[in-house]
Amino acid sequence: MTEFYGYERPDGSVGVRNHLLVIAPIDCSFEPAKRIAAQVEGAVAVTQHHGCGLDEMVANTLVGVGRNPNVAGVLLVGLGCETLTSEILAEGIESTGKPVEVVVCQHEGGTLRAIERGVRILQRMAQEVAELRREPFPLSELILAVECGGSDATSGLAANPATGIAADMLIDEGGTVIISETQEMVGAQHLLARRAVSREVAEAIYEMIERQERRMRAMGIDSRFMSKGNIEGGLTTIEEKSLGAIRKGGTRPIQGVLENSWRRLERPSRGGLWLQDGTGSDIPSMTHMIAAGAQIVTFTTGRGSTVGHAIAPVLKITGNPETYARMSDNMDIDASTILDGREPLRSVGERIFKAIIEVTSGRKTKAEALGYRGFAVFTRSRIAEHLLGFC
Amino acid sequence: MGKAVQVDGRDNVATVTSDVSEGKVVEVLSPEGDILRLRALDDISFGHKIALTDLDQGEEVVKYGETIGIASRPIRAGSWVHTHNVESARVPTSSLRRERP
């Protein structure tokens, strides 16, 4: 049985990184939050840009990120007059048992005092966190998020299917995989529904994609549309196009659809493949899967992508040989060996699986080694969702 | 010689990874590393599909181990497989299936 080396948290979850997370619940307090994080080893600051009102979808996501086992301790840095308060987020995160502290600029009397207090709190956390040691854990403790961006003709052919083999290997050892980007599943709902573990799950898949199609229709987009470029590139049907993207999640049965809304941000309740109702935008898509508990992300790309994430390591995989050669400082894994017949898919999938184990056990991805810490939260238009009858 | 990749062992089409001319032998690599050779009956561009078996009209075209469409006319092994001989098998949009108030 394969094992990875992680950090056990007080709630029994297992982190693969030991981040100290400084969360500014609103961007008004992001400057002091960034300065606090910059002063302390291993700290990273994040915020959101959807205003200071209480948008529960934003709150659920920030709480989920704070609860992610890759986060060893949390410092909330608020302004003081926001409705989405540090206390709301702290309350959501505290039950993990990890240290959670709050600094509020208006209460402290200015940013300089807030920064000083924040740095002192975080400095202490950094000292304590450094004592944690990695221990071996079974893959049942691991949640992998699969993401793709900057796709090209090689994505559906090499990088995504190879990643899918790694996803299947992880699930077969008790692990969990989350796939999101609902709009890329449109056209393949009947095929996804066929893989559902129950009738209820199949229905949830149809409902998730129906909502997405209705959103697209409201914007004047026909979800059955295939672009001229898609067809010229060799994609024959919408099913084929969607399956090429979905394949990065592998071929195992679908356990359920994870709700990602104002009501709740759902986490997988057992191992296997899960769908998340999420955005097609890469960084927020990763954030929401990480908020649902993912400790590592595989990122398949054709044209090349540079992104990393503040909370989870992002492992880049490309099937395009030119991209691998030209962007070697961004690409972790070359899957293009499939295209010229040098290596079968199975063997590339095994390499990706091995890399997942290495990275979750401590090896840095290229994006991490470059210090890339992408972060963004998404929310939906409540007005639009209300008018469409979704909330 | 042309090259092609079969993504899933159940697939009856493979994707060519270089432009292939009619009459050329194409070497198809299975996910497990087995090699199948067949002769291309058409010119096939990079990223487009070649039939691995003969398909009757109405038969399912399988890629990724799933049905990506239905053969709209008979397709011979080695032929180019695209919009001229395959149609989407997609069930009507789910919104038609169950319209909400």
Q: What can be said about this structure in brief?
A:
The complex is a heterodimer of chains A (391) and B (101). By secondary structure, chain A is of the alpha/beta class. Chain A has 15 helices and 14 strands.
Structure characterization notes:
- The complex is a heterodimer of chains A (391) and B (101).
- Chain A is built from 15 helices and 14 strands.
- With 391 residues, chain A is of the alpha/beta class.
- Chain A has a seven-stranded parallel β-sheet with strand order 10-11-9-8-12-13-14, sandwiched between helices.
- The radius of gyration of chain A is 21 Å and the shape is globular.
- Chain B is mostly beta strands and 101 residues long.
- Chain B has a single domain, classed as Archaeosine Trna-guanine Transglycosylase, Chain: A, domain 4, CATH 2.30.130.
- In chain B, a hairpin with a 2-residue loop joins strand 6 and strand 7.
- Chain B is globular.
- In chain B, 42% of the residues are buried.
- The interface between A and B is large, with 40 and 42 residues.
